[in-house]
């Protein structure tokens, strides 16, 4: 266990088909790092002696048959193995049901066979395997081990997906990718592609409904989580019906002063409404933020205020975040982070962060660790 508890990080296994002999594969392992270029800069990341003893579970399959699970203990940098039933038309899948703490990469031929299987009949693979494939593909592409088109081709099957975990794996990867691509000239191609994958499931699932007494009409937990995930994707990427529904729910709340928005989609509706509608909606949400005493609702309302397309309102909110009588000190960095995630506020947040650095450094160092400010994919520095 020392290899797993004392060595930094975790490995990526790469499985390559042997072009000269059928039923033969080459398995390699290496330290998985998101920023490969960092490996050459940091001495502690240059340690190529890292080795793990890895229990690699595998199955072989084709359109009509999947083999029983086998296990290979991988102990060396590179190993050759013979796999029964592996021929030119068969795909190979490693780390079955994500039971191992490592990522798995394949040669491009195997990736394309897996993509073809998902499109033809995704249920041949278990829910956990489908989610794991999506998560691995996007992570490997982000780290430079895999071309970016592979994960985007994998999610072509999502319109047929009925389970929460694969959708969750996809959406978790798509939002950071969206933030990178929204600055590109051809962003609309990516945007329309995601909307196309989401549309069928969004129409099927619809929106959650309230009973006459205001309580939510209950479905299974997995079903509600799936519906929420799909609604969030639809609204975030600009589905017209999703935008219309969110606007209607916000307008009804304002006109009746009764909040009938289902609890599990309130954050989505608030944010979408603030981004689409006029300043009066922002002021209404601001008023509700001040009047509510529920901590969880207050947090949702504050985040919604950062969704505005109006740069003046975003600037106003950034400046108000420094007033501890208006916004709690522990919420100030959250305001900057969420404004930075808004394409209309990214440069505003960066300028504000630089201009107010002394104040932020003094007040936030008492509350936050340096990780929140500078390290990790959700840190302020990463987003800016």
How would you sum up this structure, described in words?
The protein has 384 residues and is of the alpha+beta class. It folds into 3 domains: 1-156, Immunoglobulin-like (Sandwich); 239-309, no CATH class; 312-383, no CATH class. It is built from 18 helices and 7 strands. Helix 10 runs parallel beside helix 12. The mean pLDDT is 90. GO terms for molecular function: metalloaminopeptidase activity; peptide binding; zinc ion binding.
Mean pLDDT: 90
CATH class of the largest domain: Mainly Beta
Strand tally, please?
A: 7
CATH architecture of the largest domain: Sandwich
The secondary-structure class comes to: alpha+beta
Topology (elements, then pairings):
Elements: H1 2-5, E1 11-17, E2 24-31, H2 36-41, E3 54-61, E4 70-74, E5 78-82, E6 91-94, E7 103-106, H3 108-121, H4 127-143, H5 149-154, H6 164-181, H7 187-205, H8 221-236, H9 240-256, H10 266-276, H11 279-291, H12 295-305, H13 311-320, H14 329-341, H15 346-355, H16 357-364, H17 370-374, H18 380-383
Parallel strand pairs: 1-7
Antiparallel strand pairs: 1-2, 2-5, 3-4, 3-6
